Amino acid sequence: MMIDTIQAARALKDGKVVAYPTEAVYGLGCDPMNEAALEYLAMMKQRPENMGLIVVGSSWQQLVSYMSALSELHHAALVSSWPDALTWIVPVAQGVPAALTGGRDTIALRWTKHPDVCALCDAFGGAIVSTSANVHGQSPCLSAMCVTETFVGFSEFAGVLNGELGGHARPTPIRDLTTGDWVRT
User: Fold this and answer.
1) Own/partner pairs for 40-46, CB < 8 Å, 24+ apart?
2) Do 80 and 88 touch, CB atoms closer than 8 A?
3) Residue 45 is part of a domain; what is its CATH number?
4) Dist CA 15 CA 180 (whole Å)
5) Looking at the DSSP assignment, which residues form a beta bridge with residue 128?
6) Taking 90 as the threshold, does the pLDDT of residue 70 lie above it?
7) In this structure, are residues 145 and 93 in contact, taking their beta carbons and an 8 Å threshold?
8) Three-class SS state of 173
9) DSSP secondary structure string, 72-127?
10) Domain count, the chain
11) pLDDT score of 54
12) Which helix (H) or strand (E) holds 158?
């Protein structure tokens, strides 16, 4: 089922999971602070709990509450590379659900410039979870039809946000802010 931005934002506020186009693949998202929604999303994907999830936002303000205080050097690295299709692993703030971090002391964050994701985050009023729309271990969905066929029948799945993929050939690279190591290129 295709939904618009307002319907998707309302579904997120109601604890539901939505799919939406990202830079390269369709993503699944929910309210990152709603632990029941996080558990449901992991169940839908058959994803191990220790993997953690990406949180995506349309602004620095939407992401800053998920990270602990940064050094000037680390802050400058983030600011100089965002917004863009780059996910950073940063030290996590206190109070962030362990389901987002996989039990680690870090969290994966992305400040996106994808217009559909930005509109969804803004309508929701904050950052959202961003994980590829697929069953764990399978290829990510590249179409709304794939998402619908994969997740039809899940009661807490609200639908697919109408929009377009961002034209990137691969999911966003992931880099560790503290070590500088590339986790995914």
Assistant:
1) 40/15, 40/154, 40/156, 41/17, 41/129, 41/131, 42/99, 44/17, 44/151, 44/154, 44/156, 44/157, 45/131, 45/134, 45/135, 45/136, 46/135, 46/136, 46/137
2) no
3) 3.90.870.10
4) 35
5) 56
6) yes
7) no
8) coil
9) HHHHHHHHHH-SSS-EEEEEBPTT--HHHHTTSSEEEEEE---HHHHHHHHHHTS-
10) 1
11) 98
12) strand 157-161
Single-letter residue type at 30: C
Which pTM value belongs to this model? 0.96
Please list, residue by residue across 101-138, b when 16 or more beta carbons sit within 10 angstroms of its beta carbon and e when fewer do: bbeeebbbbbbbebebbbbbbebbebbbbbbbbbeeee
First to last CA, the chain: 32
Two tokens at 22? Answer: 């990202």
Under DSSP, the state recorded for 133 is S
Write the pLDDT tens digit of every residue in 20-45.
999 999 999 999 999 999 999 999 99
Locate 163 and state its tokens.
């929009």
Structure tokens at 136: 């764990």
Closest CA relative to residue 4, chosen from 167, 166, 163: 163
Token pair listed for 149: 């066929």
3-state secondary structure of 166: coil
pLDDT of 112 strictly over 90: yes
Q: Which domain holds residue 14?
A: 2-184
Structure tokens at 133: 């729309």
